[in-house]
Amino acid sequence: MTRPVDAVERTIKGQLVEAIRMLARADIVDHSGHGSARRDRHSFYINSAASVRGALTTDDIVVVDLEGDLVEGRARPPFEFHIHAEIYRARQDVGAVMHTHPRWSTFLTMVGARYRAVCAQGALLRDVPLVDSPMSVNTRPAGESVAATLGDAPAVLLKSHGAVVVGSDIVECFALAAYLEENAYRQYMAMQIGDPYVLTEAEQGEFRERLWTPNLFRKTWDHYQSKL
Predict the structure, then answer these.
(1) Yes or no: is domain 4-225 CATH 1.10.10.10?
(2) What pTM does this model have?
(3) Cα dihedral sign for 79, 85, 91, 94?
């Protein structure tokens, strides 16, 4: 008989695999993006560095501690595991982290354009802070800098590099990563025509109150899952 903990572990690994595959299909995660889910206070699940993101399986998920040492599995984690480790150290409310390399969000950072909420779901990301460096986050101090810049926000952009999105669980984290890029795409395209309308603070607050719900996050998940 399977232990309950094994069933939970299979569910978490399966969700993490699906989230990364869906982000890869949507061109939000590329060949070197990565996602993780907290296992406990001292370790987390993450896809291995060598894994093919669009063809990921649960065999590609390893468990590492906050120092990056393997707890389970044989493949090494991504060099930028520090992003995940330092956010988990700093944010006890975070249950999942996605480091993506999204096209449209990154274009904005390359020209110094701020992320602006131009659609309802985009307002859920609030004012997205920026790490003003394109360098790989492959040391603990660099990871600490990302976590500090993130603060209590749901996402942070990395200049000319990518984005980091966090959530209380995998579904929420995935949905927020999708919203970040959907909003950035609309903002970028509108900027080709003129100055886009940016939601007012009152409008953003109302959208955050109405739309920050597990049902909406699941609806977004199901939409992207249907495309796999």
Answers:
(1) no
(2) 0.95
(3) positive
